[in-house]
TrEMBL record:
Upper lineage: Eukaryota, Fungi, Dikarya, Basidiomycota, Agaricomycotina
Protein name: Alpha/beta-hydrolase
Entry-linked PANTHER family: ALPHA/BETA HYDROLASE DOMAIN-CONTAINING PROTEIN, SUPERFAMILY HYDROLASE, PUTATIVE (AFU_ORTHOLOGUE AFUA_3G01760)-RELATED
Organism expressing this protein natively: Macrolepiota fuliginosa MF-IS2
A Gene Ontology molecular function term of the record: palmitoyl-(protein) hydrolase activity
Any one GO CC term of the record: membrane
């Protein structure tokens, strides 16, 4: 039964109760103090329809945005649940202290109001490719930074692994040279590795179900194919920021370090890993180190040369 219903366990768009029916109006007004938040609706590939939100300060004009953070969410909830994080981030990084930023958070299939089609690794990656395409078109002058939390961090890497330079015969997106940054927060290495982590007892049968996962989300394999290469993922990973919650109770920080070490081992890289003191899996954004590191990283992305 666990094998049969595994995608229902991995992709929990139904958690918490009512997550698919939440509206922006349901959020308390202080969340959007000095912040503009609007709903996005996007036609994906095939019959897919995607919904999300666009967030930025109300004193920033959209055409003046320097950096767009494209948010890849974890395996539960919706963009609405992350609205307080986005509001805090936009408010903390004022145009006087850093770049003008906006956040695009699109819910992949089966999450929030996006198409309720059965989620798969390939399907979710395709939804995020369409999200990147849409964002690059809507913000033709801005640089993009992918921000992935938990499963979203793994999804960000696997999505970038499918994008190649325009001179190849593989899928590419016009303007993809403006994808300049990657932030991973508490990302994991693969679904099989997470199964072993969640069930460390060798006498439990669940520990041995990892190889039967339909969707592997193999972060390390995706990276190995691009490290040191002149591809989008190869280039962006050399500049990535890896954030690790010190007391993460779900994803071991060692997994994030394994991702970081793979990218930096024997490579010329400016990637950085940072431990967020006292943070748990979901609350790193409440720690000062988190906002300080994000601001520093976005300033770097804004000022770094385009090539």
């Amino acid at each position: 039964m666990l094998i049969l219903f595994q995608r229902h366990i991995i992709y929990m768009g139904y958690v918490p109760l009512g997550a698919r029916k939440q509206r922006l109006d349901d959020l308390p007004s202080p969340v959007f103090d000095r912040i503009q938040c609007s709903e996005l609706n996007l036609e994906g590939r095939g019959a897919s329809k995607l919904s999300g939100i666009l967030v930025h300060r109300d004193d920033i004009v959209e055409k003046d945005v320097d950096v767009v953070l494209v948010y890849f969410q974890g395996n539960a909830g919706s963009p609405i649940h992350r609205a307080p994080i986005f509001s805090y981030l936009c408010d903390a990084i004022s145009p006087l202290r850093g770049p003008k930023i906006a956040i695009v958070a699109m819910a992949p299939r089966s999450y929030w109001k996006s198409t309720p089609r059965w989620p798969t690794e390939n399907g979710i990656i395709q939804d995020y490719i369409e999200t990147l395409r849409y964002t690059l078109e809507r913000f033709p002058k801005a640089r993009l930074v992918l921000y992935g939390h938990s499963l979203g961090g793994t999804a960000a890497i696997c999505t970038l692994s499918k994008l190649h330079q325009s001179h190849t015969d593989r899928p590419s997106i016009p303007g993809s040279d403006r994808i300049r940054g990657l932030v991973l927060e508490n990302a994991f290495t693969s679904i099989p590795a997470m199964v072993r982590t969640l069930y460390p007892q060798k006498w439990l049968p669940y520990r041995y179900l990892g190889p039967f996962a339909f969707d592997k989300w193999d972060t390390l394999a995706a990276l190995r194919a691009h490290v040191g290469q002149d591809t989008i993922l190869g280039r962006v990973s050399r500049e990535m920021l890896v954030l690790l919650s010190e007391y993460d109770e779900i994803v071991p920080p060692a997994m994030g370090l394994e991702i970081f070490n793979l990218v930096t081992r024997g490579q010329q890289s400016r990637a950085r890993s940072v431990i967020i003191p006292l943070a748990l899996h979901e609350n790193a954004w409440l720690r000062k180190t988190w906002i300080d590191e994000i601001q520093k990283y976005l300033v770097h992305i804004t000022t770094a040369p385009t090539k």
